[in-house]
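Sequence, please.
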């Protein structure tokens, strides 16, 4: 399997867990952050929304003007936007030839400052890892926000407790 095909499969596999995490954030307690320098849950989602659009721009223009935070009204809207843009991104990647995927240089800018250049392939995998990183951050916030941890890869502590209680 070529890395392009693996990226598409991996993204499709991870997307439902990301969307579930976003939809699990309590809108009435989304300003929680564990430290003054840490992003709140709301700001993490505002940061994540732009990731698929960054990569779409990278494919189209060979540069990314990183979208640090994008406003949204509801977590359902945020999840739907990420889902739609990720599907659009994957359809674009599917159409790329392997040479473009492997070799196209993409410049990465934050607030107008060029930070680095990577191949399109490496930029896509970097953004994917960054999305997993931020999903991991969110996974540490839920209990402090007063809600149950959503399932990401397996049973949560709450799920285990329920199974133990059901056994009697």
């Amino acid at each position: 399997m070529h890395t392009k095909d693996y990226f598409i499969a991996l993204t499709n596999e991870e997307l439902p867990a990301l969307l579930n995490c976003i939809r699990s954030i309590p809108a009435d307690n989304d300003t929680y952050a564990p430290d003054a320098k840490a992003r709140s849950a709301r700001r993490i989602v505002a940061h994540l929304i732009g990731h698929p659009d960054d990569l779409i721009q990278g494919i189209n223009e060979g540069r990314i003007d990183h979208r640090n935070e994008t406003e949204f009204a509801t977590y359902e809207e945020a999840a739907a936007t990420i889902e739609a843009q990720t599907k659009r991104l994957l359809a674009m990647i599917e159409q790329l030839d392997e040479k473009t995927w492997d070799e196209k240089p993409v410049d990465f800018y934050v607030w107008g400052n060029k930070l680095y250049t990577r191949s399109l392939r490496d930029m896509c995998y970097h953004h994917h890892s960054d999305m997993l990183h931020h999903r991991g951050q969110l996974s540490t916030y839920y209990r402090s926000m007063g809600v149950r941890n959503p399932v990401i890869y397996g049973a949560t502590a709450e799920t285990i407790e329920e199974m133990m209680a059901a056994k009697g």
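The CA atoms of residues 149 and 157 lie 8 Å apart.
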